[in-house]
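Morning run. Coffee first, then this:
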Amino acid sequence: MSSSSSKDSKPLGEQELRIAANQFSNELKAVASKIGELELQLDEHNLVIKTMSPMSDDRKCFRLINGVLVERTVKEVLPALKTNQEGIASTIEQLTLQYKAKDKEFSDFRTKHHIRIASSA
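And here it is:
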């Protein structure tokens, strides 16, 4: 514990601050990118569910599983799609909370070390 408290009291140099700020920024970009990917998948799932819902349960459909096209029925595929949709939505919520926490941590870090982010415009 004493090593971490002495580490916290020691001021960081300009290079260390720049590296830490870049790391925060990169982590935020990675989480935002993953959220974007998952939102696209969620939109695709919503579209497929909307399309398949009015179809009869015994209608033939095809599903791509690990690169293999498998013949199934709507009755078999629709519940799996809904489960996947719920999982994706839950993951998006968790990543959004993680993003907000990391953003607050970055904001606190910038305030503590008096860092201003130069605009690229």
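The radius of gyration is 23 Å. Good start to the day.
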